[in-house]
Structure formats: C-alpha cells, structure tokens
Amino acid sequence: MLTSKQRSYLRKLAMDIPDIIFIGKDGITPEVIQQTRDAIVARELIKGKIQQNSMEEVEDAARKLAEATRSEIVCTIGNKFILYKKNLLKTKIEVPSKNSKTLKKKNKR
Q1: Which side of the chain, N or C, has fewer Cβ within a 10 Å radius?
Q2: How far apart are the C-alpha atoms of 32 and 29, rounded to whole Å?
Q3: Pairwise CA distance, residues 6 & 98, whole Å
Q4: CRM domain spans which residues (predicted)?
C-alpha cells in the first residue's frame, strides 16, 4: 500500500513518461494484460490511457489491470491512469520509504 507522499512522488515522476498502454473499443483483453505485465516489469511505473471509443471507465480499467498484474494504482486523472509495481530484481525507481520524514528547514532571523 502506497502512502500519499509516495503517490505524490510517483505522480511527479510519471509526468514525463509517455502513455504506453491504450485501451480501445475491445476493452481489457488478454493481450492488453500481457502488454501491461511486460511493461511494468521493464519500467516499474507505467501510464495508460482509455481511448474515446472504449466503453471502459478509467477507475474500473485501472483496478482490473492492477489486479491482473499485482500492481498498485498511483492515480487516475481524466482518461489516464498510472500503475506502479516495484521490480525486486532490477529496481529502477527509489520510492521514499514509509518511515522517512522530510526535514523542513527553519528560517533563521
């Protein structure tokens, strides 16, 4: 389970990556699930998009793909979704730990 700070960090990283999963009129097919599995193993953080001709809702599609790939939903915005799953063999993204506290600098006068 991701914390809100971890989600925020991953959302920030996802701003610069392109959409690589596209769900069209056929919905979530076995091919889309396999493509998502392959992409999430290779990249850890992926972004997908629901096409205009699709009957799928973005929350439902993200939930189904997350369950099928055992990943976590970072967020859904409009017709896009972001999924994350840590690759234990080749970690590419270092997500802040749940215990880490950010230190705020105090202004000295």
Answers
A1: C
A2: 5
A3: 8
A4: 1-96
What backbone phi and psi angles, to 5 degrees, belong to 94? Answer: -95, 105
Supply the pTM of this predicted model.
Answer: 0.85
Q: Distance (Å, rounded) from C-alpha 105 to C-alpha 40?
A: 36
Distance, C-alpha 14 to centroid of its chain? 8
Closest CA to 23 of 59, 55, 71, 67: 55
**Would you state the CATH architecture of domain 4-84?**
2-Layer Sandwich (3.30)
Q: What is the pLDDT of residues 38-80, one digit of tens each?
A: 999 999 999 999 999 999 999 999 999 999 999 999 999 999 9
Please provide the distance, in angstroms rounded to a whole number, between the alpha carbons at the two ends of the chain. Answer: 41
